[in-house]
């Protein structure tokens, strides 16, 4: 098809479908003799080529996207990265985040790290189109999906949308699901995880791997070498330092952000007394943009 036979309406239609630039759309229509499907394929091929050119560029900006089912049984957090904060604030990029969440939601239990890297899965195809349109490298380095094992709460930090938390709770019965004091507890725990420093790594003491404990104990014992202190005194020192480790890295042992005189465990115990329930935390995730630079 000759260049003068490609109308502005045809170019606009292809641009709306693909997000590619006007000249790229016009050239693809000329090359495909006005066949929109073929033109789309041409643009996708060129978009994928542009992805390869941009693949080495650092993606340390972006957003944390979240999706929560109405019954709180399924929740998704995803980190979507780009190169600049300017692009992260565009409507196009925000739509990309929503589209990625939809792909994860549709995949369900099949969504895992290997699926995320599959070129035939939808996420990489979505990225290719946006990279071609916005001109920056983009990536989805990680996501968290919880489903079917408890009640899920989420918190996205309002400033910039670059920090998100997802927490799964056990023991939430139909009788307490709609209570305001339960919502307050869920929000408080999620906000605590977002704000706590250092960031909690384990729910409870039992969740700390044995090799991690042995490594910590070995460090504490090495610190006492040459002190001349009796073995039983060193054992007490090691236990004390281990207690401090738990307070730093175990969620239930951490001092509450709201009231440092209380541990998170004590906050939950007090809430359970008011609720007449046995609510517990089974797992949690905290995603912050740029922690995993791609």
How would you describe this protein?
- Strands 1-2-3 form a three-stranded antiparallel beta sheet.
- Helix 1 (8-18) crosses helix 2, helix 8 runs antiparallel to helix 11 (264-275) and helix 9 (210-223) crosses helix 10.
- It is elongated, with a radius of gyration of 25 Å.
- The protein has helices at 8-18, 22-31, 36-54, 85-88, 91-107, 113-116, 122-134, 180-195, 210-223, 231-249, 264-275, and strands at 61-68, 74-82, 139-147, 151-156, 163-170, 280-288.
- Strand 4 (151-156) and strand 5 form a beta hairpin.
- With 294 residues, the protein is α+β, with helices and mostly antiparallel strands.
- It folds into three domains: 3-54, Helicase, Ruva Protein, domain 3 (Orthogonal Bundle); 61-202 and 253-288, Tetrahydropterin Synthase, Chain A (2-Layer Sandwich), CATH 3.30.479.20; 209-249, GTP Cyclohydrolase I, Chain A, domain 1 (Orthogonal Bundle), CATH 1.10.286.
- The mean pLDDT is 89.
- The chain has eleven helices and six strands.
Q: Keyphrases for this structure?
A:
single chain, 294 residues, alpha+beta, Helicase, Ruva Protein, domain 3, Tetrahydropterin Synthase, Chain A, GTP Cyclohydrolase I, Chain A, domain 1, 3 domains, 3-stranded antiparallel sheet, 17% strand, elongated
Major pleated sheet? 3 strands, antiparallel
Task: Indicate how many domains the architecture comprises.
Answer: 3
- What's the SSE pattern? HHHEEHHHHEEEHHHHE
- Supply the CATH superfamily name of the largest domain: Elongation factor Ts, dimerisation domain
């Amino acid at each position: 098809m000759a260049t003068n036979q490609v109308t502005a309406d045809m170019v606009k239609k292809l641009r709306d479908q693909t997000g590619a630039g006007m000249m790229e759309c016009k050239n693809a229509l000329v090359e495909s003799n006005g066949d929109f499907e073929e033109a789309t394929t041409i643009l996708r091929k060129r978009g994928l080529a542009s992805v390869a050119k941009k693949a080495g560029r650092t993606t340390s900006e972006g957003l944390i996207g979240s999706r929560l089912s109405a019954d709180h049984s399924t929740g998704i957090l995803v980190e979507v990265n780009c190169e600049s904060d300017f692009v992260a604030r565009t409507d196009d990029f925000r739509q990309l985040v929503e589209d990625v969440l939809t792909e994860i939601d549709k995949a369900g239990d099949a969504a895992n790290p290997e699926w995320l890297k599959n070129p035939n899965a939808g996420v990489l195809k979505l990225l290719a189109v946006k990279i071609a349109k916005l001109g920056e490298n983009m990536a989805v380095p990680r996501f968290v999906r919880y489903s079917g094992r408890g009640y899920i709460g989420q918190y996205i930090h309002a400033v910039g949308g670059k920090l998100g938390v997802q927490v799964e709770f056990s023991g939430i019965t139909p009788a307490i699901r709609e209570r305001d004091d339960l919502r307050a507890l869920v929000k408080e725990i999620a906000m605590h995880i977002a704000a706590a420093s250092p960031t909690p790594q384990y729910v409870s003491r039992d969740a700390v791997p044995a090799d991690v404990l042995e490594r910590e104990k070995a460090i504490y014992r090495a610190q006492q070498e040459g002190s001349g202190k009796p073995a039983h005194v060193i054992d007490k020192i090691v236990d004390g330092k281990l207690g401090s480790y738990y307070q730093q890295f175990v969620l239930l042992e951490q001092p509450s952000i709201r009231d440092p005189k209380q541990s998170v465990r004590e906050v939950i115990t007090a809430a359970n007394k008011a609720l007449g329930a046995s609510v517990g935390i089974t797992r949690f995730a905290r995603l912050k943009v740029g922690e995993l630079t791609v």
